[in-house]
Structure prediction request, 262 residues.
Amino acid sequence: MNTLDIRRPSAHVAEVYLNRPDVRNAFNDSVIAELTQTFTQLGADPMLRAIVLGGHGKSFCAGADLSWMRAMAGYDWERNRADAQALADMLWAIYACPLPVVGRVHGDCYAGGVGLAAVCDVLVAADGVQFCLSEARLGLLPATIGPYVVRALGEQASRRYFTTAERFSAARAHELGFVHELVAVEGIDAKVNDLVATLVANGPAAVKACKRLVQDIAGRPIDDALRADTARRIADIRASAEGKEGVQSFLDKRTPAWLPKS
Prediction:
């Protein structure tokens, strides 16, 4: 990988860092392809239980690379659509990754970078970080990132920040529920590590099922079909080997099999 720094600090954890600090981790077609491939591969790794997504340098991600944008200015409609589809597929690869993704936003996060933050399951941001959905300033719109940002930021706040292209602080993003944990920049790694340790301590199949559950039921009416679906899901996991082991280890007051013996 030329644009990513991928690490495995333990058997159960992967870290993916955007590694273009000279351009504030702005993405281009190479970054998009490598992120898509990386999250597809990591999501299929049976040993992994959590992924951290961060960036090197001063910024988390500044959105689209200026050189890439200059090239796109000369594209016809079909080429523009193909590039946009690749970005949409990359965002989906992260959002739909079966493993929980913890976002580590240590520096400013603009445009498509906000989309990357939005597809994370848990988002930690450093105090002082600025977010900006800046597309309207360029006569564009945040279309491919839109479905994820609206879900994470909320419809009403998205109406404002999509149309005004104002900057908003990490503190404001925390108030709106977009950022889960707001910390001093020197404490960001400790908080991310705490969250990763919590995820790894849980049943690995259960964590994947919980992530999928939220995605599948969000916004759905609570009708007969949904009630039946949720009943089936809990029955499935109760009857699974992991579910039985989790309940039995709790009753026996012992460490479950998916954790190392203390």
Remarks:
- The chain is about 50% helix and 15% strand.
- Residues 27 and 64 are 5 Å apart (CA to CA).
